[in-house]
Design goal:
Blueprint lengths: L9 H9 L18 H7 L1 H4 L2 H10 L6 H22 L1 H6 L3 H9 L5 H34 L17 H50 L3 H5 L13 H15 L1 H5 L2 H4 L5 H34 L6 H6 L4 H34 L6 H14 L2 H4 L3 H29 L6 H4 L17 H15 L8 H5 L1 H20 L1
Length: 485
């Protein structure tokens, strides 16, 4: 039996506003839920084809799998990700609520603050800054090809470790991301509508080039990487490592996917749209990423797993420029969907009376600049250890959210109780305070899922941290709830 979506009316919205909730936290009325399957189909395309994802595929080719198996593992991963996004997004599409309120329905109004802060502020803002810096490096390559003299501007100028050209490109790219963020979902829909056909054209063209210069598809599929970095996992384990890695990439947007599904015209629309989007995107990405990296490596005679370095070696300035521009656009899309929009909504949730969505975007953007992400990237070990720990938190959070919504509450949320009047007596409100069992399950699963980073004998758990963390949290939470009855 298919679940029926619930739509609030204007009288309920007025009541919730009087209780102190701003527009960004309110459930969406029917007229504001305007994202169709087509919108969701284009939403995630740009988030798949980004520079870090291409680099990750280079690492997958060193796990001991053949190129064709890496492609297949990526396609299987897309099905796992789409299932996660669709099912964790159903609370949003059924009730029209954003992530902050979805989180409150699971952890309680006080309990939601810590996991919400970690996902929406710490992880999102840190990643927003790092993605901006990575994008600025691509922009630096682009401008350097079109205007070589740009690379020497400023002479010995140094802004906390950034040269003049580096500061200019970072500021430009940061400003572009800020403007897209302020535009919100509407601007993002228009942006992805332009980006989607470009992805097919550019990455399809790059894949054809790679197959040609690599000596044909047979050479690509029979390629075997060499060197000290090659590992020899069993195929079964290697598949799970790739699936876990892809799920980890989507851990943050997957946890807060209600920020997007709240706008769905129906649950069916987001289900069809997201599933098709991720499957088609990864079908293209699986072939293009493997072909481009291997074909480029064969052509240039060096194992090159940074796709920007391959593009930078092209003789054709127009072709290289177009490719870099599309990479820049995919980085903007990834930043908007995965970082700045969730950060803005979470800041609005933490300070509902003083911060709305647009103010949240500006605050998050300014903080992302002030943390000087280029400095964080000077010490790759510490920053990635930090981000890995933040990412590991989100697997357990997702596990608890899914267990609570589907098995504890049977897909039912009491909106009148959820949007409680904080000035009234809420001692008997089911969403008041902290869901203790949710916290215990989250923390226990987190400790176990990150243990492999500190205990060498448990390295395998670290390699499967999202899967292990979410599964453990899911199981522990249900056991604790059952024991409480």
């Amino acid at each position: 039996m298919q679940e029926v979506d619930f739509f609030v009316n204007e009288e309920e919205i007025k009541d919730f506003k009087e209780r102190g909730y701003n527009d960004d936290l309110l459930p969406k009325t029917a007229d504001k839920r305007n994202m169709s399957s087509k919108n969701y189909f284009t939403l995630w395309m740009g988030s798949v084809h980004n520079i870090p994802n291409y680099t990750a595929v280079g690492g997958f080719l060193f796990l001991g799998l053949s190129p064709i198996n890496v492609m297949l593992a990526l396609i299987v991963s897309s099905l796992a990700v789409s299932a996660f996004m669709v099912y964790n997004g159903r609370a949003g599409s059924k009730y029209g609520i954003p992530f902050a309120m979805h989180l409150r329905s699971t952890y309680g109004d006080l309990g939601a603050k810590l996991p919400g802060f970690l996902r929406g502020c710490v992880a999102a803002i840190a990643w927003f800054g790092l993605q901006n810096y990575a994008g600025s490096l691509a922009l630096l390559i682009l401008i350097g090809k079109l205007w070589p003299g740009f690379l020497t501007l400023g002479g010995g100028f140094n802004f906390f470790g950034l040269s003049m050209p580096g500061l200019i490109t970072f500021t430009i790219f940061w400003a572009i991301n800020l403007l897209i963020g302020i535009g919100g979902g509407g601007a993002l829909n228009k942006f992805t509508a332009i980006l989607n056909p470009l992805i097919y054209i550019v990455f399809g063209g790059m894949a054809i080039w790679a197959v040609s210069v690599g000596g044909g598809i047979g050479n690509i599929l029979s390629y075997v990487p060499t060197g000290a970095g090659v590992q020899h996992y069993t195929p079964f384990l290697a598949y799970f490592i790739i699936i876990n890695s892809v799920l980890s990439v989507w851990a943050a947007p997957g946890a807060s996917v209600s920020d997007f599904t709240q706008n769905a015209t129906s649950t069916r629309a987001q289900t069809v749209g997201q599933t098709a989007s991720l499957l088609v995107a990864y079908l293209i990405f699986a072939f293009s990423s493997v072909a481009i990296l291997i074909g480029g490596s064969i052509h240039f005679g060096v194992q090159e797993w940074n796709v920007l370095n391959i593009v930078n070696k092209w003789d054709s300035v127009p072709a290289a420029s177009i490719a870099v521009i599309v990479f820049l656009m995919t980085t903007v899309s990834t930043n908007a969907t995965g970082n700045i929009i969730p950060a803005a909504y979470q800041l609005s949730a933490l300070f509902p009376k003083s911060v709305d969505y647009k103010k949240g975007v500006i605050i998050a953007s300014v903080i992302s600049f002030l943390i000087m992400p280029w400095k964080l990237m000077e010490n790759a070990g510490s920053i990635f250890a930090f981000l890995n720990i933040i990412g590991a938190v989100l697997g357990p959070v997702a596990g608890v959210m899914l267990a609570h919504y589907y098995f504890v509450k049977k897909q039912e949320i009491d909106l009148d109780a959820l949007y409680m009047d904080t000035t009234a007596d809420n001692s008997k409100n089911i969403y008041r305070g902290v869901n203790v069992e949710a916290y215990i399950a989250t923390i226990a699963a987190l400790v176990i899922s990150v243990s492999g980073q500190f205990i060498p004998a448990l390295q395998i758990i670290s390699n499967l941290s999202w899967i292990v963390g979410s599964a453990l949290a899911f199981g522990i939470y249900l056991l604790l709830k059952k024991a409480k009855k």
